[in-house]
Amino acid sequence: xxxxxxxxxxxxxxxxxxxxxxxxxxxxxxxxxxxxxxxxxxxxxxxxxxxxxxxxxxxxxxxxxxxxxxxxxxxxxxxxxxxxxxxxxxxxxxxxxxxxxxxxxxxxxxxxxxxxxxxxxxxxxxxxxxxxxxxxxxxxxxxxxxxxxxxxxxxxxxxxxxxxxxxxxxxxxxxxxxxxxxxxxxxxxxxxxxxxxxxxxxxxxxxxxxxxxxxxxxxxxxxxxxxxxxxxxxxxxxxxxxxxxxxxxxxxxxxxxxxxxxxxxxxxxxxxxxxxxxxxxxxxxxxxxxxxxxxxxxxxxxxxxxxxxxxxxxxxxxxxxxxxxxxxxxxxxxxxxxxxxxxxxxxxxxxxxxxxxxxxxxxxxxxxxxxxxxxxxxxxxxx
Length: 383
Hints:
Elements: E1 21-26, H1 28-31, E2 32-33, E3 36-37, H2 39-54, E4 58-63, H3 66-74, H4 84-107, E5 113-118, H5 120-124, H6 126-141, E6 145-150, H7 164-175, E7 179-184, E8 204-206, H8 210-213, H9 229-241, E9 245-250, H10 256-263, E10 266-270, H11 280-286, E11 293-297, H12 299-306, E12 316-321, E13 328-332, E14 338-343, H13 348-354, H14 362-366, E15 380-382
Parallel strand pairs: 1-4, 1-7, 4-6, 5-6, 7-9, 8-10, 11-13
Antiparallel strand pairs: 2-3, 9-10, 11-12, 13-14, 14-15
């Protein structure tokens, strides 16, 4: 079972006591090249996964590669990413080959693969999120290796993760994992672009700050995947909210997991606080990628929220978007910075009516006994 013990180094990723549950994300460029699947490399990676299982760790794999594999079979231009229709068609064909490859190679070590294809809504809707959590838990309890990918054959630009870095972080939340390892085509986060003279690899980062974000490049080096360093930092932020460590390592090398763990060549992002008991709901809320609207608040409300208060109508200055009661919304400061996510107790129209008004006035405005807050502190998380 996952633990609240804190990881502090890359070597801890191999410690079944400190890291009993690990999510490993594998990028497209690692799995597929111009000749097709990189079978020899993947065979070695699966052997490393088997070693992790043998030392008592649960392992979940988030695997890219379906679009790249399908595009090759269908002979589509631009790696299958020339249009949404091409990507969906490529994914439908490639996912069969991808899941079959994982199943075959894991079976060689006596391990059972289980395929899960997820959409954004599967992890954004609370009930579906809990269903995904239950499925993952049962599979892991049965000793299987869940192999997860975004369901690109049905996902559209409006309802997709867009990259498997953030998907891996959200899966880690749902599975109550202890750490995420993103295997990509870079060694980790550098203090500037790695091609610049004097660029230094950062071994450990505690909390993603504005200074850390400024170091990121949006470019995916291979041109095959959909992510870059920015998406990896976003994944680290999602993991941080759940008290989960996240590492970025270079998967282009032989035995990449051992290189990260034994040689320490990677960047480890440590959350600023340990995972709090009972914080799963807030981790889900804080890690959401799709919000239905925004509440802009004044400086007094920002201070009150920072001290653990609920959001009252008196502190709201503007309503953005169309949302219903129970929808997730962003809470913004006057400068536009998102400071919190929360589940709103009123729909957008009601919020407009209550804008800036004191709680004692709400019943007369609405015509019914109101709820005590626009966003209750139990349904709110600072980000």
